[in-house]
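User: Could you check the structure of this?
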Amino acid sequence: MTTQLLFTIPQEYKPAKLKTLPLRDQPAYKVASNPLACNLSELLASVIGGPQQIETADALMTSYAGDIQRMYKASAEELAHVPGIGQNIAIRLKAALALAFRLHDPRDEMPTINSPADAAALVQYEMSLLDQEYLKVMLLNTRNRVLEIVTIYHGSVNSSQVRVGELFKPAIQRNAPAIIAVHNHPSQDPTPSPDDVCVTRAIVAAGKLLDIELLDHLIIGGNRYISLKERGLGFS
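Assistant: Sure, the predicted structure tokens are below.
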């Protein structure tokens, strides 16, 4: 008597979508042919890779409602919790999103700052996406050309927590004669607080002792900014 072994496929089993697509419709092929013609899901699938890349990209799109800015703001740890992502893919996604931002980052052009608007334009898009307050410093040479933009601190930018000495450390290391301080308000309202004015006054005073001039202190709030120098707050 011959025993016949029967194998059944679970009813819920579905083959990976990638295998069901002709080559010309697969994300990697489409990206190689014309990446600008690809939709966001196809671009994400190409970064994710693997046999389940389309399903994983769909899960990512669902988790973030297709909002690429929310994905950019998310930490690698947060992204890793999306089904199918994991830590390694999350790191690749963060790198890809950062590269996309760098492509349009005007800081690579080493611009000259002639006005508060010039300075705000360098950081406004990036800082408007941040969920916490970040304090950055622009290091300038004698011609007000940007040498570097350095993140000094994140958390609450107030007089009890910000160490002014840390703020000047990069300027001393780069021998920069002037700086511009910039921080964001996650509330999207750039109105200066009393602590903002107090911090500015402390930076101005320390700069005079170090012979490093604070040219301005900008507050970014969404698509707006305020120059404390223009308003005479903390500079008098």
